[in-house]
Design a protein that fits this description.
Length: 312
């Protein structure tokens, strides 16, 4: 079994690292959030206080971080991953970043004689808990082959997407399509309700018909239909508006850079921007269903519950 350093133990990193522990690996974890670190420790991760300590003798390093700037800092800082990784270690970044940041990681790793694979994931927190994530791998063929073995305990699907940056490119396009699907499910769910359809009956129809999608099956924005959907929990985040806005914005930027026209993605981004402007960035991204509601209210969402929680 291997020793694996895991940097970033949040909603995705904690269950992912726990699956590595369950597979028999020694996992040394780092997170600035004491609560996140404690949660990971309860699942068998050995919490250490620095990246250097986590990387000492590590066979692989996995990062799971919120934004591109965090990835660049964790890898490039004087006390970061590049400064402390052994030449034999395999570096994998599972974060969703822009293509430029991913290529920067590859270039900086190459300049130091290190092996790096961009390894973004899809499947959300439910997939992380169920070790059924899809990993999209980009890098040299030999490094990607090594990465398959490392990520296997966390994965339902592992797909080699191509060379450096191909994994993150696939992830950005995938997530862009997801947020467009969320808009479709949002509008369809609200129209079905206004037409008097029973939500469960309509969902049963759509699930086996041409409207079926991952968003419909997993994130349906009406309470009492899909068990783990955020609509059953006052739209508390399983995938936050802030993170969705970041991912969608990166995809739209890629469209600008390549000349691809993305009108639907821009509309999705504008709705996420509006939620952020209203101070709802920490809520679930499926709260965009509110924009389809005739009066702006949404069954399953009570803003007063958020206000009460904020004053506890």
């Amino acid at each position: 079994m291997s020793t694996i350093a895991f940097i970033g133990l949040g909603h995705m990193g904690a269950p992912m690292s726990a699956h590595l522990v369950a597979a028999g690996h020694t996992v040394r974890g780092v997170d600035l959030d004491a609560t996140a670190a404690a949660a990971a420790a309860s699942r068998g991760v050995r919490i250490v206080s620095s990246i250097a300590e986590a990387l000492a003798g590590a066979d692989a390093v996995i990062t799971s971080l919120p934004k591109p700037e965090h990835v660049r800092a964790v890898y490039g800082a004087p006390d970061g991953v590049f400064a402390h990784a052994a030449a034999s270690a395999l570096l994998l970044d599972t974060s969703t970043v822009d293509v430029e940041t991913s290529r920067w990681c590859h270039d900086e790793a190459d300049a130091r004689g290190l092996s790096f694979v961009d390894a973004p994931i899809s499947g959300g927190t439910a997939g992380a808990e169920a070790h059924s994530l899809t990993f999209m791998l980009g890098g040299r063929a030999g490094d990607v082959a090594r990465a398959r073995d490392v990520v296997a305990p966390m994965a339902g699907n592992v797909i080699a997407c191509g060379g450096a940056g191909a994994g993150i490119a696939a992830k950005l396009v995938n997530n862009m399509m997801l947020f467009i699907s969320v808009m479709a499910v949002s509008e369809g769910s609200q129209l079905a309700e206004q037409l008097g359809l029973d939500p469960q009956v309509f969902w049963d129809v759509a699930r086996v018909s041409s409207a079926d999608s991952w968003a419909l099956r997993t994130w349906y924005p009406v309470p009492g239909v899909v068990e783990k959907a955020a609509a059953n929990n006052n739209f508390d985040a399983s995938f936050s508006v802030d993170l969705a806005r970041k991912d969608c914005g990166l995809a739209v930027r890629a469209g600008d850079e390549t000349g691809v026209h993305l009108p639907a993605a821009r509309l999705a981004l504008s709705q996420l921007d509006e939620l952020v402007a209203e101070g709802l960035g920490a809520k679930d991204c499926t709260l965009v269903a509110r924009f389809a509601s005739p009066d702006g209210t949404l069954r399953g969402y009570d803003p007063a519950r958020d206000d009460a929680a904020a004053h506890v």
